[in-house]
Amino acid sequence: MREQISLWNDQLKDKSSKEILSFFLNEFKGEIALASSLGAEDQVLTQMVLSIDKEAKIFTLDTGRLFPETYDLIHRTNSKYGIKMAVYFPESAAVEEMVNTEGINLFFDSVEKRKQCCQVRKIQPLKRAFKGLKVWICGLRREQSVTRTDMNIVEWDEGNQMIKVNPLINWNEDKVWDYVKNQGIPYNTLHDKNYPSIGCQPCTRAIMEGEDVRAGRWYWESPDTKECGLHKK
User: Fold this and answer.
1) What is the C-alpha separation between 52 and 22, in angstroms, rounded?
2) Residues 117, 118, 200, 228: which is the catalytic one?
3) Cα(45)–Cα(35) distance, integer angstroms
4) Torsion of Cα atoms, 129 then 135 then 140 then 145, to 10°
5) Is the pLDDT of residue 68 over 80?
6) φ and ψ of 204, to 5 deg
7) Contact 36, 61 (CB under 8 A)
8) Which CATH number do you get for residue 219?
9) What share of the chain is helix, strand, coil (3-state, %, to 5)?
10) pLDDT for 195
11) Which domain holds residue 123?
């Protein structure tokens, strides 16, 4: 598979994001999905994916700690495109056990406990969402953080034993927002309040001028730990 992925990266390196999506949506019809975090990048991909295949699977994860603005965006996105985005929730028993053992805001105590929270609220539901799939589409961009600079258009996700496709990997921030505005794509209103990267409410803050776009995510941690585990190679 790694050899095939290398061939795809060579084959697709000069293709547009929509051409990359068309290739994989046609090649893996019924076995591919867009995993949307509802960020600006994933809203771009939602519009592109649905313009290619109206029946394509798009899903998101509701951790139970999201911003009200994020729930509003799910509603506005569904309404605009006439879809019902699939929403996956964490197992209630697992959340109860974690909170009653470690505390409601355990993620502030250590990186290990923060990752435990991400595991229960995000990784486990993600694995359920992946059932029956061979490919997942992501909105990752190289310039987003130091943990993403070496990512490619197509990758092998060892942990999930799946192909991961990053059609916007070479896009910069300006290109994303130009596309959003030109296409009239709904986006999270928190972006207008200096929240470039939005996750769970207690783990996200607005950034200050000059800060990295992901500085507001897990803002109490070092930049090199700022992944929840969804995008490990």
Assistant:
1) 7
2) 228
3) 10
4) 80
5) yes
6) -130, 135
7) no
8) 3.40.50.620
9) 45, 10, 40
10) 96
11) 2-225
Tokens matching residue 140? 């990752």
Q: Is 228 a catalytic residue?
A: yes
User: Is 147 a residue whose pLDDT tops 70?
Assistant: no
- Amino acid letter, 188: N
DSSP state of 134: S
Determine, yes or no, domain membership for 98: yes
pLDDT at 213: 83
User: The tokens of 124 are what?
Assistant: 């486990």
* Average model confidence (pLDDT) across the chain: 93
- The residue behind tokens 């986006």 is 187
Strands (E), the chain: 32-36, 57-61, 86-88, 135-137, 154-157, 162-165
Indicate the pLDDT class of residue 233, thresholds 50, 70 and 90: very low
C-beta of residue 62 within 8 angstroms of C-beta of residue 89: yes
The residues, ordered by sequence, that sit 6+ positions from 232 with a Cβ below 8 Å of its Cβ are 158, 159
Q: Is 70 among the domain residues?
A: yes
Q: Is residue 232 part of a domain?
A: no
